[in-house]
Structure formats: C-alpha cells, structure tokens
Amino acid sequence: MTSIFLLPPPHMKVVVRVRPMIPSEAKKGSTCCVKVVRASSCKPHQVQVDDHLFDVDLVYDERLNQRDLFHKEFANLIPTVFDGTNVTVFASGASGSGKTHTMEGTAKNPGVVPRTMQKVFQFGQQQVATYRVEMSFVEIHNDKVMDFLAATTTKLHQDELSLSTSASGRVVVDGLITRRIASFADFEALYERACKFRRKGAATYHAKSSRSHSLLHVRVESRGFDGLVRVGHLHLIDLAGHDDICPTVQESASMMLDMQPLDESPVARLLADSVAHSSIAVMMCTISPASVVVKDTLEALQCAAKQRHVVVASPTAAPKEGIKHLLTMAVDFEKRGKARPALALYRQATLLLDTPNEKLQARMQALAAAMSTPESEVDGAKRPLHATVQRILEEDILHTFNHGSMAALMALQSIGEKKAAKIIKGRENRVHFTSIRDLMNVGMGEKQVVRFQQLNVAARLSSL
C-alpha cells in the first residue's frame, strides 16, 4: 500500500494534440508516422513515432475540434482559479504544428485563450458575489521583453523591460502595465490588438509562424457568497515556433527539473517561475503526423515526456496552517496510542518551523522513548477520528481509484474483480474520482459506499 505520507506529488499534466496533415506535407509524399496508444490499467497514454514510445497524460488526434478541446481540458480550471489556485497553461511544439492555432485560434474558431477568458467572466457573473479581473501581457523576442499593453493602435512599444527578483523570490517584470478588464469585450479588444503586433515569420512548413513568445497573466480576485476573498492567478503562455524545436523549452524543463538556473533567458525564468508557483500546470504539446517533419515531432515529444516529471506546488494551506494541521493530526494519533505515525508527523512539523521548538523536541524525545514499550503500540480509548486524518486517509484511497492497478483495486475492502474492472473502464473514459461517493457512478448503492468507506478507512488506519 502507498503510504499516506508519501503519496506522489502532483506533476505537470502533459496533453498532446496531433493536428491533421496539411496539403504541403502530402505533396512531399509524407506519410503518417504518429500512432496514438490509449491508456490501459497498467500503462498511461502513449504516442508512438516510428519505434519510439512516449508516455503522456492524454492524447487527442485530428478529430478533436477547438471547442471540445477546451471543454475537456481547460473549462474545469476556471473554478479553481476563483477558489484561489494558481494555474499555468503553456503550449509548446515545432513551427507549424498548430500551437498558436490551439492557443489563439481565429475569430470564427477561437482557441484556448479567448475561450478561457470568456469562461472567466461567465463564471464570475454567475458563481461569486463580486470579482475583479486584471491582466498583463508581454512578448519576448530575441530575449527582449516588451509590453503588449503599452502598444499604441498602430505599433508595439519598443522599450525593453528588465526582470528582477522580488523579496519573496518571484520573478518580476519591472515597469509592466497591469490593466483591469471589466468584461470579455474589454479583454478581446486588448488581446486582438496585441496578437496583431506579435512577430511572425515564415518557417520551413508554415508561412506565418510565431517568432516570439507571448505570456498572458490574469489575476482574479473574488468574494464568494461565504464572504471570503480569494485571489487566483492564471498564466497562459504560447512559446515561439522555430524550424527546430525551441531550445528554450528544453532549457526551461532542465531548469525546473534540476532546480538550477541553467538558462538565464527571460522566457525560461518567467516560465519556470509561473510553473513553480502554480498548483496546476498543463503543457499542451502540438505535433504534426507527417513523416517529413518526424525529427521535429520526436524532439517535441522528448521534451513533453520530460516535463511530466516536473513537480508542481501542492495546493495546500499556508505554512502556519499546514503546521497546525500536522500537529493536530499528530496529537490525534498519539491519543489513540499510535506512536509511530504521531512521531512522523511531529518530525514533519519541525521541518516547517523557522526556529527550533524546545517543547516539541521534548515531546518527540518522550514519544520516541515510549515507543520501546509494548503499550505504546496499543490503541488508546476509542475516539472519533479527526476530520483532517479522515480526509488524508480518504485521499489515499482516491489515489488508488485514479491510478491503482487491477491488483491494487482488488486489495481494497468490498472491491472484487467486476467492480475493479468498472473503475478501470471509467478511468479509460476519462472519469476522475474526486470523492468516495463517486463509486455510485460505477454501480455501488449508497449504503454500499458508506460501508466501503468505513471498512477501508479503518483498514488504512490499522496499517499505520
């Protein structure tokens, strides 16, 4: 069983979109070199190019349109931003692979960015008491940072902006303009003007390929009907296209993976900073199926597969609140006579403290000494399980639902071969379990779900 204290941290989600083959590729005698391998119970989605296999989170072929892509992958991110979560979405791929089409789209067939912003305003009007949206928008070309919002109606402002690091460690664009936008029409006017100024040029297989990076930052502050104010940030990034895969993508990946500033270019610094401070990060990798550009496709997928190992920030409470939760859980376990997990939680709490706490150190020493006696491993008086502990235990079970093998699912109480097969089939149909009650979607009755929850939470607790 996976330890509840060692669950794998959330990673960057990598989505691959295969565009249709274009006439110029067909005229060159190109054939399709890309094959989509759907996920199964024992392996993730894969993209096969010739003899090479790449693990990714999801793959969409040329049949998926702009609207369906948005609703499948991005529409559900909007409520999380209003809930105070930071989200980063960036598109990567070789020139002409459909990257900018996916992000910008056209007036008649809008892409991820305009559809996302339209959804932001729809959600704000319907789901919260009040809200405020602000945006900034920069272009990076030849390592020069320019402000799209400083542009006039006829030309892009040419003054180069510099980057600095704030006291909190964030990368900041000095002198960047931030504007409040009250409606989607406000956003659309600014965005369309900026897109006209974005530098484009001919690439090997594309007459108008983006030659610059665009980074849109949206800040959403909202007051819910519960009276609480929340602030979330949304980063929508379209990386430049090149005849070969953009090297800054690979350098950014290396920097994020190795935690070393291997590249001081502005786009690498800003991309790494936005991902490092986001709880949700999605990479949209666009590729061509044509054999004539197989080299570009392989390099794009190699970069995408590497990004899956990038760990994103956990959407947990603030550090002080996190320490409080750890200590509450530790005390709860200690009172139940569970010395080992209590000591582990106390140790985790000490790692988050700015200065050593003598009382906590003494408590840990006493607990460690008590563990040498058999009585320390005997359950204490029966008490209701603390809500935080219950939630952590249930998250461990949900992790098995969403990622466990057939054997791991059947190891759960009340889950036999048929129910395990239904859960796996649901996952293959992109069902994601967010609550134990979601078992009702695979044939369990309400009483069965309650019994399942009781049995499996108890089993997890007894295994600590």
From TrEMBL:
Record-level GO BP terms: microtubule-based movement; mitotic spindle organization; spindle elongation
Pfam families: Kinesin
GO function term, MF aspect, one: ATP binding
GO cellular component terms attached to this protein's record: microtubule; microtubule associated complex
Alphabetic keyword roster: ATP-binding, Microtubule, Motor protein, Nucleotide-binding
Ranges for domain Kinesin motor: 11-241
Keyword field contains Nucleotide-binding: yes
The family this protein is said to belong to: Belongs to the TRAFAC class myosin-kinesin ATPase superfamily. Kinesin family.
Protein's name according to its UniProt entry: Kinesin motor domain-containing protein
Organism: Aphanomyces astaci
